[in-house]
Amino acid sequence: MQWVAEVSSAVSPQEEVDIDVDIEVVFLDHFKESNVVKQILNLYQNTIFSLDIEKHVSKKIGFRILSKTLNDANLNNMHRITESIIMRVKANIEKKEKDKMDYNQTFIHEILNEVEEGMNSVPNSANYIFNKEYKMDLSLYLCRMAAERFKDMHAAFRKANDPVVYLESKREDFFKCFQISCQGASSITTFADFLCSKIAPPLRHAIYEKTALDIARDVKDKIPDFGGNRSTLEYFMLKYLAEEEKFEKFMYYLNAPGDFLNNYIKTKVETYRLDKNRRLEMSLRDSLFHYYENIRSAIFASNTVVKDRKDRKDKISLWLDEFCRVLRDVQDLSRSDLKGIEHQEITDTEFLNYAMTEALSHVIDDLRKEFEEACMSSFERQPHTIVAEQFAGCQEQCPFCGAVCTNTMPNHDGDHRVVFHRPQFLRGHRWYERRLFKWHKTDNFKIGICSSLVSSDYLFRLGEDRWIPYKKYRDAGHPYSTWSIPPDPSMQAYWKWFVSSFRTQLEHRYNGKFHGKGEIPASWKTVTKQNALAELEKW
User: Fold this and answer.
1) What letter would DSSP give residue 401?
2) Long-range contacts of range 268-274, CB-CB < 8 Å, 24 or more positions apart?
3) Residue-wise over 62-91: b if at least 16 C-beta within 10 A, else e?
4) Which of 84, 105, 88 is nearest to 28 (CA)?
5) Cβ contacts of residue 444 below 8 Å, gap of 6+?
6) Tens of pLDDT along 355-401?
7) Cα–Cα distance between 33 and 164 in angstroms, integer?
8) Measured between alpha carbons, how far is 539 from 528 in angstroms, rounded to an integer?
9) Phi and psi of 14, rounded to 5°?
10) Cα–Cα distance between 100 and 117 in angstroms, integer?
11) Calpha distance 354→373 (Å, rounded)
12) Kind and range of the H or E element at 467?
């Protein structure tokens, strides 16, 4: 059309955006190393980031940098800094999505800056630094995670704000309005077809949104994992890990607890809804029928309002006002999109009722066909995300073992608590020994869990020369003072089984040994998976 061509010629052509290429360009400029592209190709395959002390951290002594082991307080701080960086980046992306922003290459720089700021938050008094490998690996993980979301943001922004795209999308609307004006008596059918074409997109959105909420409620009622609080869910995740008995899944749970929880919930929800009984299709059809009845009620209400209003010449405008008002709380139908048809001279409201019912039936049939092929990716807001939000709760991790607080409220009052603490070597802790008047970190894993250690006479190291009795761990200050760890001298059978079963892999992954003070007791080797699960049941 001529007016589209005129607008196109007046508007500067938009540059094509390739976010993956942008990431490469920014990384090449930022890191200035010849093998950056190769590293990107290798690391871009990683779906999680796991802090590797040997690879990502170097010890600092004056102006020299040595790769050596670090104390417990340093290890805790490294994990907290890493988790904080990831959380800040995700929060920034969510804010951009909420504000409906367009993608900009500066977003990639912002991610790199967040990583750098986190790295710089290491206290000057600390005896370690994060190195280039850490910056590269964490930045790539975050950019990979962000890329898909940036692509969706850009597509949505362009559709909503590009004048040429907007005019092209309205071409059919303008033609229909012109057609209705020219048709006279037969315009009622065209009017109904046009109005139903405007109803279809928000109706589809409302159906998926309602179904997502219904599924979230349903799985909380039907799946035992989601029937309780965060502690209950923790039990089911530990049970699942034991039953699967796969080392990498344990590492995923330990190193990326938030991502693991979300993925666990997603898998459970999708397995439940996408079964052979076609639960998903039936749920969508139920929501469709619910909104169909709403629309039929709106048609009836609108006809009633204008039926005897002979004093009004703008009956269709009045009809549309009532129609949109009745549907306002159930679907987002824009009254402004109907301006082009509000001046039509339609007086036969009975025939309008019939025409609307006929036109609406075609919309319903199309949606029913779509629902036959629907899958979980069809949802804009995923059901598993709704469930996960209800279990998000507090994200603070035990400063000793890294277990996530099970309180269901973020920023809650009172102390942080967990039901299942873990062996402390899983957070990088090892035993020290004194040689030549100095304390040296050994390769002996600290296999005790927090609740057993706080009932012991052992000490833990805080800084270079400060030692705190585990029994008085709160005296170590924040974050130790914000945690309640009830003393329990027994060791959970679950972790005895885990350590015995994956001894070789754990020694390789955490670069230490189960010997000396970290020797695995012979009794642990007799603990079976069934013993571990049976004890877990009691909790």
Assistant:
1) T
2) 268/219, 268/223, 268/225, 268/226, 268/384, 269/215, 269/219, 269/223, 269/376, 269/383, 269/384, 269/387, 270/376, 270/384, 272/219, 272/222, 272/223, 273/215, 273/219, 273/376, 273/383, 274/375, 274/376
3) eeeeeeebbbbbbbbbbbbbbbebbebbee
4) 105
5) 430, 431, 512, 513, 515, 516, 517, 518
6) 889 999 999 999 999 999 888 888 888 899 899 888 888 888 899 99
7) 41
8) 18
9) -80, 140
10) 26
11) 30
12) strand 466-469
| Helix, strand, or coil (residue 31) | helix
What whole-number distance in Å separates Cα of residue 141 and Cα of residue 49?
A: 6
List the beta bridge partners of residue 438. 435
Q: Name the amino acid, one letter, at 229.
A: N
Find, among 455, 535, 458, the residue nearest to 496 by Cα.
Answer: 535
Whether residue 383 is preceded by a cis peptide bond, meaning omega within 30 degrees of 0, is no
Residue 248 CA: distances (Å) to CA of 78, 251, 271: 22, 5, 21
- How far apart, in whole angstroms, are the C-alpha atoms of residue 324 and residue 322? 6
**How many separate helices (H) and strands (E) can be counted in the chain?**
20, 7
Residue 463 vs residues 61, 126, 127, 204, 468: alpha-carbon distances, Å: 14, 8, 9, 58, 10
Could you tell me if 339 and 173 are in contact, meaning their C-beta atoms sit under 8 angstroms apart? no
pLDDT tens-place string over residues 304-317? 888 766 666 667 88
The string over 277-297, giving b where at least 16 C-beta atoms fall within 10 Å of a residue's C-beta and e elsewhere, is eeebbebbbebbeebbebbee
Decide: residue 206, CB within 10 A, 0-12 exposed, 13-18 middle, 19+ buried: buried
Give the other-Cβ count within 10 Å of 328's Cβ. 12
DSSP letter for 190, please: H
Q: Which whole-number Å values give the CA distances from 162 to 98, 101, 146, 289, 486, in the listed order?
A: 19, 13, 23, 35, 60
Q: What angle do CA 81, 264, 234 make, to 5 degrees?
A: 75
Distance between CA atoms of residues 70 and 80, nearest Å? 15
Count Cβ atoms below 10 Å from residue 389 Cβ, excluding itself.
12
Contact indicator for 4, 171 with CB cutoff of 8 Å: yes
Q: Higher confidence at residue 120 or residue 207?
A: 207
Mean pLDDT calculated for residue range 443-455: 93
Structure tokens at 199: 């109803």
Secondary structure of residue 513 in the 3-state scheme: strand
Residue 422 CB-density burial (10 A; 0-12 exposed, 13-18 middle, 19+ buried): buried
Please tell me the pTM assigned to this model.
Answer: 0.70
Mean of all residue pLDDT scores within the chain: 84
Higher-pLDDT residue of 99 and 65 is 99
